[in-house]
Amino acid sequence: TTLKTRESCTKNHLINELDYIMRPRQGGTSVRALELDPRNADARRDLLQFYLQAPGVVGGSVAKARALAADCVPYDADLAQVLRADVHLHEAEYAAAQQALGTVGPAASPATLSYARQVARALAAAFEARGQPEPARQVLERAAAK
Fold first, then answer.
1. E strand residue ranges, 1-146
2. What percent of the chain has pLDDT over 70?
3. Residues 64-76: pLDDT tens digits?
4. Distance in angstroms (rounded) separating the CA atoms of residues 131 and 125
């Protein structure tokens, strides 16, 4: 029985260690940061990227990314639109991404405007790759005007 108890303890320890190691990769630090301050734009953006890039087995999900963007509206409507645009871009929904970026106002925070320009550049590159230079130009011009 001592050997079985030792094996059981070792397995439990291993499971706990794996859980501890994986927690940050599951967006744990960003989730905690948003619990402490729901207005934390950096944590929201980082968590969105985690949701979009991580496989489902470790917590990634487009549905979670969409919900995160929607939850942002009461705190920062402009940031919510950029987050939505980023999700649309990830899902190759380029017209929807362009529309979401178009609603970001010039009075948005500098960090939000910087993020919007980053998403706009990626969206313009996607339009260019599809042989659509006119929408690419429009996206870049709007981003530069803000």
1. none
2. 81
3. 999 999 999 999 9
4. 10
Q: Which of 32, 69, 75 is nearest to 48 (CA)?
A: 69
Q: Among candidates 69, 137, 73, 145, which has minimal Cα distance to 113? A: 145
Phi and psi at residue 63, in whole multiples of 5°?
-60, -40
- For residue range 87-134, what is the model confidence (pLDDT) as tens digits? 999 999 999 999 999 999 989 999 999 999 999 999 999 999 999 999
Neighbours of 11 (CB within 10 A): 10
- Pick from 115, 112, 131, 135: nearest CA to 123: 135
Decide: helix, strand or coil at residue 67. helix
Neighbours of 76 (CB within 10 A): 19
Instruction: Give this prediction's pTM.
Output: 0.80
**What is the C-alpha to C-alpha distance for residues 142 and 125, in angstroms, rounded to an integer?**
15
